[in-house]
């Protein structure tokens, strides 16, 4: 009898534990489903943990669906710039979950670049910035600057080095297309296309493709427009450089200016902050706004503006 009672007791305990596990599993599934459905967050400058609306940078990073955003060509550069800003100064403000999410998104970015063979230099610079920051933070271990075990961070640094090596080993494959190429276009069209490039390093790289493009890439008007696009007249006047012929050397001025001043940033799509209800979301995302014309209440945020929202 005692043996049977013991078996019955164990069986009951097992049933209770099994029901609890099923309940927890259902709750977790519900939370995950809700997590993916919600594409916006409430943010209010000056909120505290005791007041409604408190939101951290890590929470925002977890809930704004950056994993999907990197697949959108209009948002890709925006997310990469945001990852770079976080790597420079905000890593220690992320929670453990947010740091893990950061690394997962970074891995997806690297894999996308490896597959598409585009934006290679951009991601190289991001990885180098992150690695440099981690080297500095790991050296300060024991001073509560990083969340998590030091071995985990060392493993992440090894992953960064591996990604860097993969990017360095990329061999750009020439497409099999045999129709009209860029150099077959009239010179005026080639110049017109080159004027659409916003990074001087891209112009230099393009000039290394063929001798004719080398000549076009040195066009003074091209570099003048690039300088005027990124910098103010006052900034330009402070960094004047004359060539041997006594003319303004716009190319040298451009590379001097980018060392002294930040370049103009422009993105196809950005995060939007509703001034009426203080809700943050991607452009075009519906949110429960009570304003009569929600479209007129939205303000575009640069990546730096996004970071600044969470500096209480």
Key features of this structure:
about 300 residues, 14 helices, globular, mainly alpha, four-stranded antiparallel sheet, about 60% helix, single chain
Structure description:
Helices cover 58% and strands 5% of the residues. The model is unreliable at 5-14, 29-37 and 49-53 (pLDDT under 50). It is mostly helical and 312 residues long. It contains 14 helices and four strands. It has helices at residues 2-37, 57-63, 66-69, 73-90, 96-116, 120-138, 150-168, 187-194, 200-207, 211-217, 220-230, 233-238, 250-260, 303-308; strands at 40-42, 271-274, 279-282, 298-301. Among the domains are: 56-169; 199-260, no CATH class. α11 (220-230) runs parallel beside α13. The longest helix is centred in the N-terminal third of the chain and has 36 residues, at 2-37. Pathway: Protein modification; protein ubiquitination. InterPro entries: F-box-like_dom_sf (IPR036047), FBX25/32 (IPR040394). Its main location: cytoplasm. Part of the SCF (SKP1-CUL1-F-box) E3 ubiquitin-protein ligase complex SCF(FBXO32) formed of CUL1, SKP1, RBX1 and FBXO32. It is found in: Cytoplasm; Nucleus.
List the helices and strands and how they pair.
Blueprint (H helix, E strand, L loop, with lengths): L1 H36 L2 E3 L14 H7 L2 H4 L3 H18 L5 H21 L3 H19 L11 H19 L18 H8 L5 H8 L3 H7 L2 H11 L2 H6 L11 H11 L10 E4 L4 E4 L15 E4 L1 H6 L4
Antiparallel strand pairs: 1-3, 2-3, 2-4
Helix pairs in contact: 2-5, 4-6, 5-7, 6-7, 9-10, 11-13
Main location: cytoplasm
Protein name: F-box only protein 32
Subcellular location: Cytoplasm; Nucleus
């Amino acid at each position: 009898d005692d043996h049977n009672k013991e078996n019955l007791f164990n069986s009951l305990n097992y049933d209770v534990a099994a029901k609890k596990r099923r309940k927890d599993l259902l709750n977790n599934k519900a939370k995950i489903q809700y997590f993916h459905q919600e594409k916006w967050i409430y943010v209010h400058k000056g909120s505290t943990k005791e007041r409604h609306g408190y939101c951290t940078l890590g929470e925002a990073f977890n809930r704004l669906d950056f994993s999907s955003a990197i697949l959108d060509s209009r948002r890709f550069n925006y997310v990469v710039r945001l990852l770079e800003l976080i790597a420079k100064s905000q890593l220690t403000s992320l929670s453990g979950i947010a740091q893990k999410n950061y690394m997962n998104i970074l891995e997806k970015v690297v894999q996308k670049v490896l597959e598409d063979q585009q934006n290679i230099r951009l991601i190289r610079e991001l990885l180098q910035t992150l690695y440099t920051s981690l080297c500095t933070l790991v050296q300060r271990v024991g001073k509560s600057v990083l969340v998590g075990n030091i071995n985990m961070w060392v493993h992440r640094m090894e992953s960064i080095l591996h990604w860097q090596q993969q990017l360095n080993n990329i061999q750009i494959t020439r497409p099999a297309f045999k129709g009209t190429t860029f150099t077959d276009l009239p010179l005026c069209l080639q110049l017109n296309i080159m004027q659409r490039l916003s990074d001087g390093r891209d112009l230099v790289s393009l000039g290394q493709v063929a001798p004719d493009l080398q000549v076009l890439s040195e066009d003074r008007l091209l570099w003048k427009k690039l300088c005027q696009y990124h910098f103010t007249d006052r900034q330009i006047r402070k960094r004047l450089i004359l060539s041997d012929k006594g003319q303004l050397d716009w190319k040298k001025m451009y590379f001097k200016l980018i060392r002294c001043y930040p370049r103009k940033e422009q993105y196809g799509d950005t995060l939007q902050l509703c001034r009426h209800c203080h809700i943050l979301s991607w452009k075009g995302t519906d949110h429960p706004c009570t304003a009569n014309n929600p479209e007129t209440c939205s303000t575009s945020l640069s990546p730096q503006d996004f970071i600044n929202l969470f500096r209480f």
